[in-house]
Design a protein that fits this description.
The chain is built from 28 helices and 24 strands. Helix 2 (74-80) packs antiparallel against helix 23 (685-709) and helix 25 (763-777) runs antiparallel to helix 27. The longest helix is centred in the last third of the chain and has 25 residues, at 685-709.
Amino acid sequence: MHSSADPVQQPSQTVLPNGLRVRLMPLLGSSQAAALVRVHAGSHDAPSAYPGLAHFLEHLLFLGSRNYTAAEGLMPFVQGCGGQLNASTRERHTDFFFQLPADQLEEGLRRLVDMLANPLLDPGAQLREREVLQAEYQARAQDAETLCDAALGHAIAPTHPFAGFHAGNRDTLPVEDAAFQQALLGYHRRFFHAGQIELLLAGPQHEAVLQCLAEQMDAGLASHPLVRREAPPLRCKADGWFRLQLSNAQPRLLLAFALDGLSEHAVPALDYLSAWLASEAPGGLTQRLRDAELVQSVKLRIPYWYAGQGVVVVELLPTERGMAAPAELVEAVLDWLRFFSDAAHWQPCHAEYQRIRHRSLQNAEPLTRLRYWVDPLAWNLNSDEAAIKQALSLLSAQMLGCAPLVLITDKTSCAAIETSGFPLCLRPEPPQRTVPTDWGWQQPAANPWLTPGLLRYEAADIPPALRWQAPEDMGGQGALFLRWQFMRGESFPALSKTLTHALQSAAWAAQQAGVALRFEDLGDAWCLRLEGFAEAIPAILSDITPVLSAPPAAAFTEGQALAERDAALSSDVMLVRQLLNRLPRLLMDPAAVPGQTAASSSSSSSSALARLWQTAQWQGLAIGFASSMSGPLTDAIHTLPGTPALSPVARSVPATVKRWHDVSSAAAMPETAFLLFCPLPDRTAKCEASWRVLGRLIEADFFRRLRSELQLGYAVFSRFCQFGEHAGMLFAVQSPAASANEILDHVEQFLSDCTVKLAEQDDDVIERAARQASDRHVASASDFRAQAEQAWQSLQAGHEIDRPVEVAAAMRTLQRQDLTAALEALRLARAGWVAVANAPAPDSGWA
C-alpha cells in the first residue's frame, strides 16, 4: 500500500458549509477505503437522569433509518462486503467507523449519514435493544478492567461525571416513559448534526472524489453550531490505597493519577510517556521489574480524558512476589517517573520515538490511519515540539506532586459497597511504605530493529520447505510464516506458553519496528508469523531463533504457570474470546492424547523442548521480499529448530462425529459462551466456494435473529473462517440468560429456517451474491496483508497458492442447488461438529 504523502504528515482539516469538519487521506494503490465519524458527545453529555442514554442511542442507530431498513443498513452492508465496522461511546465522544472495498465507500457513507441523521428509533426495537444493553452490562459487570475503573471512579469527587455510572442497563433506560423518549430525541437533536461531527476518509480515490463524498455527507446532516461543553474540576475525594475483590482475574496493581488544567499538548506528551513507561527494552522499567521477578507487564491506560483533564493509570500485572511487596512496586514506578521527568533522560529518546511513530503508520491499513489522525494533537511532522516538552514537564510535575491512588485487586474477600452501577467489593487499605531502592535507572536501550541496516544479497539456495513468493514491489512489506508440525495428536501447552512468554519482549520490539510478531499454538502444530516492514524481518528472525531453541530458565516456570492459568476461565478477557483462543487447539485429531504439559523442573522442561524440536518438521512461506533479501532471510532460516519437511505434511480428515468440549472446569459462571465450528465436508474448490457464499448470505440474518430478535446477548456472530488447516463455518454466542443447550437449539432452528428461506430466495439474489463474493474473494495485489494471509491459509490447508483463484472461479458457477447442498451438509454435520462451551454437553449424542 502506498500513500500520496508522508505517513506522519497530518491531513489538513477543512470545514464544509453545514459545519462538518473533514480530513481527507488519498492512499494511492490501496484496494480498501475507510471512514471514521466522531460525534463530539458521549456518555458524560447525556442527561444525568438516564445513565447509558448515549450508549443506547449508539446501538439504536444501527436498527434502521429513513432510507434503509435494519436488514439494508450499514452493518449488514459492510459485513456483506467482507469489511469491518464498529462503534464506540466514550466519555465525551462517540465514534462510528468502517473499512471495506474501495468501490463500496460511497454506498457505505450513504448508509452512515442516513443512520446518523434519520434514525427510526422504533419503540419495539428500543425494547429489544435495551435487553442487549442489559446483557452487555451483565458481561461488563464481570470484566476486570471495567470494575477497576469503576473502583477508581469511587475515589473521584462525586461532582465529576467520571465518578458516575454511564454504561446503562434495564433499570436506567425507561424506554416506556414519554420523558425518556423526549430526552433521547433531545440528545440526538443537540449533538447529531454537522457542527458537532468530524469526518475522516481514506482510500485510493482522488482527493476531489473524497471531497465530493464528504460534501454529500455534510448536506445530509442538519446544520447547527458546535455545542461547547465544560467539565467540572477533576479532584480525588480521598488519597490512599484500596483493595478490590476480583475472584476470577489475574491480580493487578494500579497507580491512578487525577490530572487537571493541562494544555492540549498533554495528549502527545502522554503518548510519549506511555511509549517509554511500557517499554520492554533492556534497561527500561518493565524489563528491570521483570528481571527482579516482580511483574509480568506494565502499561499506561487513560480511562478518561477531556479538555486537559483526565485519569491516567499505570497498570502492573505483578508476580506472586510482586503482590507480596506492593509498596516496593509503587515506589519503583514513582522513582522511574522522577528519573524520566528529567529532560536530560527523556530527550535522548525523542528521535527513536519519531521513528517508532513513523514505522507504525508506514503501510498501515486505512482505518488504522484514521483512528490515529482523529486525534487532532496526535504527533506529526508539524507538531509543536517545544509545547509538547513543556506539557510533558507539567504532566510529570502533577503526577509526582501528590501521592497516587493505589488499587490492589486479588481474591481477598471485601464487603460489597453501595453503588449506582457496577457491583463492587471494595475497601480502603492502610498505605504501605518501603525503604527506597536505588534502582540506578537508565534510558531504555535503542531498538536495533528500527534501523536494521540490512546487507542485501541473493541466496545460493532456498530450502524446499520454504515457499518463496517475491512480487516486484509491495511497498516495503513482507511476511514470513513458519509452521512446525508434531506427531499427530500431541499437544504441549506449557511449552508453547513458555515460548510465548520468552518472546514477549521481542514481540514488543518488533511492533515498534513495524513488524507484527505472533506465536500461535494450534495443538499439534506451532506457527510463527512475522508481518510488516520487510527489511527488519531477517534480523528479527535471526535474533529470536536462539530464544525459540533455548528459552531462559525462568520462562519455563512462567510458562507452566501461564498454562495452568489458561486452563481456568477468567474475567480478564471476554468469555467468548477465551473460547476462540482455545478453539484452534481443540480442532486437532479427536483421538489426540495430550503430550507433556508439565515438568518437575526447568531443566527437564528444557530437555522436553529440545526433544520436541528434534521431531518437529517445519514448512514456511516468504512473501513480498525482494530477491536481494533472500540471502539474509534464508541464512536466518537455516538456524531454525526442527527439520525442514521434505514432502507436504498430510492434512487431517474431518471426523464425522459431534465433539463437545466443556472448558468450565465445573466452575459456575454468570454467563454462557458457546462456539459451534462446522468443518468443510470435502476439500474441493466448489465445496469451499459454496460454504463461503452461504456464510455471506446468512451472516447478517444470524446476527439479527439471535441478537436483536431473541436478545440472547450482545456478542453474536457467524462467519466462514479458517484456523490453521481447518476451514469451516463458525457460530458464536455469549449470553447472560440462555444455556448452552438453548443456544444450540436456536442455532439449529436458525439453520432449519435458512433452508426455507433459501428455497424461497430469488435466483438473481443468489447469483448476485455469488458473483459479488467471486469479485471480492481474491485479495487485490495492492492489499498485501490479505494477499499474504490467503496464500498462507491455502498452504496450511494443503492447497496451492492459487487456491483463491480456483474458489473465485467456482463461485461464479454456483447455483441454488449448490448452496442448498452446502446448507444440508452443514445442518446434518456431514463432517462433524465441534462445540466449545463453559457447560457440559446436552446429551450422549456428543462425544
